[in-house]
TrEMBL record, chain A:
Name of the protein described by the UniProt record: Germination protein, Ger(X)C family
Keyword Translocase: no
InterPro entries attached to this UniProt entry: GerAC_N, Spore_GerAC-like, Spore_GerAC-like_C, Spore_GerAC_C_sf
Any one GO cellular component localisation term in the record: membrane
Listed GO biological process terms: spore germination
From TrEMBL, chain B:
Biological processes per GO annotation: spore germination
Record's keyword terms, sorted: Membrane, Transmembrane, Transmembrane helix
GO cellular component, one term: membrane
Keyword NADP: no
Pfam name, any one: GerA
Family under the similarity heading: Belongs to the GerABKA family.
Bilayer-spanning residue ranges: 299-321, 341-359, 366-385, 391-410, 422-450
Protein's recorded name: Spore germination protein
Length: 382, 506
C-alpha cells in the first residue's frame, strides 16, 4: 500500500475512532451565568448528613436564549435551577435529570458564596479547591460573598439586566468610575489565599430594589471574619494604588466641594526603627475640581483657596485611610493591604527576619500615611 | 497506423496522380476545395487545394490565381527557360505572397492544407509550394472575462495562436524572447508555442517544459487544460501547479520573471509555469497600483484565502465544541439563532454549501440576465425562506455567503476551486474533532503543500527554503515598493538577476 493510503487510514482512524464525544450543539447548552453556594441547614449549627459531609445548596442561573432572539416576547428571560449536593459539579450532574440542556461553565461570570459558607473554613476550602481544579470554568470568574444567602441574591432579578452573572460582570467592568468595591476573580483570589490564607472578596448585598455590590468581605484563614464598608474599601484601594477615578466630597465652610480624582500614585517605604517596622505610605493624587458654587464669596482662581481645598481633601482621605488601617491591623489582624508583599519584594533583609511570625508582627507595624493632593483643573472660569 | 500510412506518400511527377492521392486521403472531406487551372499558351497544369473557410480566399484569388493566370500570360518568357525551370519561376516570380514554403512529401502538404494553408501543385515537379493563406474569422480582442482589472491593459488572448504570440511580442521587444512552435495531438495536431526569454529563464526549466510537452501522447488537444493536466507534477493534488491566464500582460510579466509560457491554438488561455502559492495569489494589477494599496489588497486576499478555506469549519468547531471561545453575548446570540434548527451545524453547513454550489453552477450555465435572476432567487429568496422556516440559522447563511464571496476574491479561479474542495474535507474533520480536527486537517494539507513542487520549484516558495528565496518575500503577502525590488524573483532560479540597474550599467 502506498504511503498516501497508509496516511489516510491513520488519519481516518484518529477521526472515526475518537468520534465526537465532546460535541454538544451550542443551542443544547445551558450557559450558566452565575453560581450561588449556600449551606443547608438552619441557625448556627451546620447539619451533617450520614456520610459526614456538609451539604451545599447550589443554585444555577442561566439565560433563556429564546428571549434573546429578535422579536420574541413573553419569554422567561432566565431560568434558575437549584439542588443539594456535596459540591458544585455534583449538583450540576444531579440537575441533568431536571434539565434538557447540558450545563456549560465556559461563560460563567460569577460565583456567589453565601455568608454562612464563608464563615466555615472547611466549606470555603472545599469550594476553592474544587474551583481551582475545575477545567470547565475559566479563571476570570468573579467571586462575591453575599450578605445573607446566596440564592436570595440570585433570585432577585436586577432591573437593568435580568441575568445575574451578566449583570455582575458588567458591574465589575464599569468599576472605573467607582471605588466602592474591588472586582476579584478566581485568578486574583487563589494566589492570595495560597500566600497568606487571606483575601478581600467583594461583598454583595441583596436589597428590595435589586442587588448591590459594595465593600468587601475579609477572609482570614479561609474564613470570613468581618466586613469592610464602602469607604474602608476605598481606603484599601488607595493604599494598593487601584483607584482610577473617585469623587471626594468635602465641606469648605458652607460650600460643598466635589473633587474628582483622575490619577493616583502610591510610593511605599519600609524600614526598621528600634526593632519595629515602619512603613511610610504616600498617596499622591491629581484631580479636577468638579463642583464649587456660583457666586461664592471665594474665587476658585485664587491659589490660596485651591491650596486650602487640597488640604481639606488630604485631611479627609488621610483620616479615612488611618481608620481603615487601624481596623485591619488591630481588629482583623490580617495583612490585606500588601505590606508583606512590599517587604518581600523590596526589603528582603527585613522580610527574612519577620516572615516566620508575620501574623504576629503585622499588627505591630507602624504605618504612616501621607496624602498629597493636587487640583489640576478647575473647569470653566468666568 | 494512420501516421505510418501517410508517411509513405511521396509526390509523383504527374499532377493528376498527386491530386488523386490527395483526394483519396481526404475522401469525403467536402470542405476541401480543388481548383485546377492552366497557365500560358503551353498550358502548364497547376492546381491549388485549400480548406474552405480556413483560407483567405481573396488573398488566394488576387495574388495567386490572378498573377499566375493573367499577369503571367502578359510576360513573354524565354520558352526554354520556362520549360526547364517553370517551378522556380513560379515560386520566385509569380506569387505575391509574403510567406512561402515548400514540402517534398504529400502528407506534409495535406497537414498544411488542414492547417489552413493553400498548396500549389505544379505538373511535372516533385515539390509542392505551401502558400501562407491562413485566414479565418477571429474574435476581436476583448477584455478577458475571468480576469478583469480596474487598471491595466484591456486586451485579452483570443482563440488564434498567431494573434496571441503577437500580443506577447508587442510587449517584449527583445530578441531574446523565443517562441518555439510544436504540434501536440496525434489527430488534432494543435499548434503549441513555448515562450521564454532566453537569457532570463533558467535553461533547465526550459528544457524540462519542452521535454514534458514532447512526452504528451494524446490524440486531441482542445484546450490548455488538457495540456495542463499532462504536464503537472502531481495530478492527485487539489492545488493547481500550472497557472492559466487570459492576459497577455500577465504572460509578459511572467516571462520577465524567468518563467515559461505555453500558448495553445484554439484557446484564449495561456499556461504559465512554474507557479507557487504566492504567484497564484497575485494579480497583474498589484504591480500597476501603488505599493501601499497593492499591499493592502494582497493582505486582504490572503485573509480571503483563509476565510474561504476555514470559516465554515471554525464556525462548526466553535459552536459545537468550544462555545467558551466566543464572547458571552455572541455565544448567547448564536445559541438563540440556532434554537429550533433541526440539524446539527455540520449538516446545516453542508445544506447551505450544496445550495451555494448549485446556484454557482446554475448561474454559470445560464446567460447574463437569467443567471442574475437565478442568483437573486437563490441567494435572497431561498436564503430568507430557509431562515424563516427555521431549517437553517441566519448565522450559517452569513458564514456560507461570506465564504463564497471570499473565494471569489481570490484572483486565480483554479486555486479558489482547490480551496473549495479542501474546505469540505476540513469541515468533516472539524465536525468530528472540533478545533483539534481542524489542526489535524491543516497538518495534512501543510505536509502536502510543502512536498508539492511545480517544475522543480517548491510550491510554498517563498515561505519555505528561506536561505535561497528570502528576497522573494518582498513580493509575497505585501508588495514592497518597486524601487526596492531590484532583483528578479529567485524562485525560478533566473539567469539574469537584475531588474533595476544603474546608469553606468546601461
Amino acid at each position: 500500500m502506498s504511503k498516501f493510503g497508509k496516511m489516510i487510514i491513520i488519519f481516518m482512524a484518529v477521526a472515526i475512532l475518537s468520534g465526537c464525544w465532546d460535541k454538544v450543539e451550542i443551542n443544547d447548552r445551558a450557559f450558566i451565568s452565575a453560581i450561588g453556594i449556600d449551606i443547608q441547614g438552619h441557625g448556627g449549627e451546620l447539619e451533617k448528613n450520614k456520610t459526614g459531609y456538609k451539604k451545599f445548596i447550589v443554585t444555577f442561573v442561566f439565560p433563556n436564549v429564546k428571549a434573546i432572539r429578535k422579536g420574541s416576547s413573553g419569554e422567561e428571560p432566565r431560568f434558575i435551577l437549584s439542588s443539594v449536593g456535596q459540591n458544585i459539579f455534583h449538583v450540576s450532574n444531579a440537575l441533568t435529570t431536571r434539565s434538557n440542556k447540558t450545563m456549560f461553565f465556559g461563560h460563567t461570570k460569577a460565583i456567589i458564596i453565601g455568608e454562612k459558607v464563608a464563615r466555615d473554613s472547611d466549606s470555603l476550602k472545599q469550594i476553592f479547591d474544587e474551583v481551582e481544579r475545575a477545567h470547565e470554568m475559566g479563571r476570570k470568574v468573579g467571586v462575591f460573598i453575599s450578605q445573607g444567602e446566596a440564592r436570595r441574591v440570585i433570585k432577585i432579578e436586577p432591573s437593568l439586566e435580568s441575568v445575574t452573572g451578566t449583570y455582575l460582570s458588567a458591574l465589575s467592568k464599569a468599576k472605573e468610575k467607582s471605588s466602592r468595591f474591588t472586582p476579584k476573580t478566581i485568578a486574583d483570589i487563589l494566589p492570595s489565599l495560597h500566600d497568606c490564607r487571606c483575601a478581600l472578596i467583594p461583598r454583595i448585598i441583596p436589597t428590595d430594589k435589586g442587588i448591590k455590590v459594595a465593600g468587601a468581605a475579609v477572609i482570614k484563614d479561609y474564613k470570613l471574619i468581618g466586613w469592610l464598608g464602602e469607604i474602608e474599601n476605598r481606603s484599601v484601594m488607595f493604599i494598593t494604588d487601584k483607584v482610577t477615578s473617585e469623587a471626594i466630597i468635602v465641606m469648605d465652610d458652607d460650600v460643598l466641594v466635589s473633587y474628582v480624582i483622575s490619577d493616583t500614585s502610591v510610593s511605599k517605604n519600609g524600614r526598621m526603627e528600634n526593632g519595629q517596622i515602619v512603613m511610610d505610605i504616600t498617596v499622591n493624587m491629581e484631580g479636577v475640581l468638579q463642583q464649587y458654587k456660583l457666586e461664592a464669596k471665594n474665587d476658585v482662581l485664587d491659589n490660596k483657596l485651591l491650596r486650602r481645598l487640597e488640604s481639606l481633601v488630604e485631611k479627609k482621605i488621610k483620616s479615612e485611610i488611618d481608620g481603615t488601617i487601624k481596623k485591619i491591623q488591630k481588629e482583623f489582624e490580617v495583612d490585606v493591604i500588601g505590606v508583606a508583599e512590599y517587604l518581600y519584594k523590596f526589603k528582603p533583609d527585613i522580610w527574612d527576619k519577620v516572615k516566620d511570625d508575620w501574623e504576629d508582627v503585622f499588627p505591630e507595624v507602624k504605618i504612616n500615611v501621607n496624602v498629597n493632593t493636587k487640583i489640576r483643573r478647575i473647569g470653566m472660569t468666568k | 497506423m494512420l501516421r505510418e500510412r501517410e508517411n509513405s506518400i511521396s509526390i509523383s511527377k504527374d499532377i493528376n496522380t498527386n491530386l488523386k492521392k490527395i483526394k483519396e486521403v481526404l475522401k469525403d472531406c467536402d470542405d476541401i476545395v480543388y481548383r485546377e487551372f492552366t497557365v500560358g499558351e503551353r498550358r502548364f497544369k497547376f492546381a491549388i487545394v485549400y480548406v474552405d473557410g480556413l483560407t483567405d480566399k481573396i488573398l488566394v484569388s488576387d495574388y495567386v490565381l490572378e498573377s499566375l493566370m493573367h499577369q503571367a500570360r502578359g510576360l513573354e518568357p524565354n520558352p526554354n527557360s520556362v520549360k526547364n525551370n517553370l517551378y522556380e519561376l513560379v515560386k520566385n516570380g509569380n506569387i505575391a505572397i509574403t510567406e512561402l514554403k515548400e514540402v517534398e512529401t504529400l502528407n506534409e502538404a495535406i497537414d498544411n492544407v488542414l492547417a489552413g494553408e493553400t498548396i500549389l501543385l505544379v505538373n511535372r515537379y516533385q515539390k509542392i509550394i505551401i502558400i501562407s493563406s491562413r485566414g479565418w474569422p477571429v474574435r476581436g480582442l476583448n477584455e478577458p472575462q475571468t480576469e478583469t482589472v480596474i487598471r491595466g491593459a484591456r486586451d485579452g488572448f483570443v482563440e488564434t495562436l498567431k494573434v496571441n504570440t503577437t500580443l506577447v511580442r508587442r510587449r517584449i521587444r527583445d530578441s531574446k524572447l523565443k517562441i518555439k512552435n510544436m504540434q501536440i495531438g496525434r489527430r488534432s495536431k494543435t499548434d503549441v508555442a513555448v515562450l521564454y526569454i532566453e537569457d532570463v529563464a533558467n535553461k533547465e526549466l526550459i528544457e524540462e517544459v519542452i521535454k514534458r510537452l514532447k512526452t504528451i501522447r494524446v490524440d486531441v488537444v482542445l484546450e490548455s487544460g488538457i495540456i495542463e493536466q499532462f504536464i503537472e507534477d502531481n495530478w492527485m493534488s487539489p492545488f493547481p501547479q500550472v497557472e492559466n491566464t487570459e492576459r497577455p500582460d500577465a504572460v509578459a510579466a511572467a516571462l520577465y520573471e524567468g518563467r515559461v509560457a505555453i500558448l495553445i491554438d484554439n484557446t484564449p488561455f495561456a499556461l504559465v509555469v512554474p507557479v507557487t502559492i504566492s504567484t497564484l495569489l497575485q494579480s497583474s494589477e498589484d504591480y500597476y497600483e501603488r505599493w501601499i494599496i497593492a499591499s493592502l489588497i494582497r493582505v486582504l486576499r490572503y485573509i480571503a484565502s483563509l476565510i474561504a478555506l476555514l470559516l465554515p469549519s471554525i464556525y462548526i468547531a466553535v459552536t459545537a465544541y468550544h462555545p467558551g471561545m466566543l464572547p458571552t453575548q455572541l455565544a448567547l446570540y448564536v445559541a438563540a439563532t440556532r434554537e429550533g434548527v433541526p440539524f446539527p451545524a455540520i449538516i446545516e453547513a453542508f445544506i447551505m454549501e450544496v445550495t451555494i454550489e448549485l446556484l454557482r453552477e446554475a448561474g454559470m450555465r445560464l446567460s447574463g440576465p437569467i443567471g442574475t435572476t437565478i442568483g437573486i432567487v437563490g441567494g435572497l429568496v431561498i436564503g430568507q425562506a430557509a431562515v424563516e422556516a427555521g431549517i437553517v440559522s441566519p448565522m450559517m447563511v452569513i458564514i456560507v455567503a461570506l465564504t463564497t464571496i471570499a473565494s471569489f476574491a481570490i484572483p486565480s479561479y483554479n486555486i479558489a476551486t482547490g480551496f473549495r474542495f479542501v474546505r469540505f474535507g476540513i469541515m468533516i474533520f472539524s465536525a468530528l474533532l472540533g478545533l483539534y480536527g481542524i489542526m489535524l486537517a491543516l497538518l495534512i494539507i501543510g505536509i502536502h503543500l510543502v512536498r508539492l513542487e511545480s517544475f522543480g520549484v517548491p510550491y510554498m516558495s517563498p515561505y519555505v527554503s528561506f536561505s535561497e528565496t528570502y528576497s522573494d518575500l518582498k513580493d509575497s503577502v505585501v508588495r514592497m515598493p518597486i524601487q526596492t525590488m531590484k532583483k528578479r524573483p529567485r524562485f525560478t532560479n533566473v539567469y539574469d538577476k537584475d531588474r533595476i540597474f544603474s546608469d553606468s550599467e546601461e
